[in-house]
DNA sequence: ATATTTACCGACCGAACGGCCGGTAATCAA
DNA sequence: TTGATTACCGGCCGTTCGGTCGGTAAATAT
């Protein structure tokens, strides 16, 4: 049911999706939906949590690695792409939330925490050397995460396709487009 | 009035913004708003057009340049950042529409046209040399534009700040983060 | 066989929304 | 000064929405 709701949220937007739509897509009535959940916002909350939990798990795994900071950064970027691909619809919901309710604001706050983790990693990588130090680390983190998050706009999950995208993205981010 | 509406659209989302909200922010009543415009959707239409017109103007200007394709690509990326900064709130509205109405679908279609322009430019740049040919041009275009468009999520317009962001972005995109 | 829990439904409610209409006051052209 | 145009308003309408409630039928436990 969460999956059905999230699919509709992404098709038409959260506000534009009615509880009737969700019920209809499950072949039951609106009243029956309320037998299983407490309200529309709970569905949103569960979806956002599923996405955020994946991202923080990735951050925890990478933090534990005993490799130089630039490589930890690259690993985290790559893992973020894979999480986004695995939990595609949940991450898409998360990235569209604007903070209209308390639950949404809490999700935004957790997103900012993740941004901070990446920013700190960029900072370390610049200090250790291996990542260009001439751009503000917060800007680097936002631009790279922006590129990752933009996948929700056009990437469509297929088995195995995520690694190819992760390769392309990390190549652009770390090596750049320019040859010679 | 368009400016006031667009500001609210971005604060709370298009659906979550009522005509009463727009009227209130202007110090007039809802009825008075309808004296000036035909409906809510017209406001959205005008905002999206303002953003798209800016992007296509940039594309036209760059197309007329007599420089190698890789440099035209870099110029277009940079100009896109500047358009996004100039028409920030309008572009933000544009990038959030999901195609729920006919007008939104038309805007999405124009966005795809712009994507195609960038993709073709990447293709030329790869053929001429100077841009790495080992990544699918459509993927390159989407990732770079994704990085540009992600600015709507955190960049806040200040006079002069756009060039610094454009520099950082094009440096990452063309030279990459890695040193040595 | 009976009691209890689970899944479901139809009917309804109050609120909010986009939009419309008839009318009034200010502005402006002649 | 008069006539027309423009800007504005209060009040209303039909619809849709999230959510509730009382009740039924099936599943499950004892």
UniProtKB/TrEMBL annotation, chains A, B:
- Any stretches that span the bilayer, and where are they? none
Question: Is Cell inner membrane found in the keyword set?
Answer: no
- Gene3D superfamilies, per the entry: Homeodomain-like, Tetracycline Repressor, domain 2
Q: Which InterPro entries match?
A: Homeodomain-like_sf (IPR009057), HTH-type_TetR-like_transc_reg (IPR050109), HTH_TetR (IPR001647), KstR2_TetR_C (IPR041490), Tet_transcr_reg_TetR-rel_C_sf (IPR036271)
List residues annotated as DNA-binding: 18-37
Keyword field = DNA-binding, Transcription, Transcription regulation
Coiled-coil ranges per UniProt: none
- Any one GO MF annotation of this record: DNA-binding transcription factor activity
Q: Which PANTHER family match?
A: HTH-TYPE TRANSCRIPTIONAL REGULATOR BETI, HTH-TYPE TRANSCRIPTIONAL REGULATOR RUTR
| Full protein name | DNA-binding transcriptional regulator, AcrR family
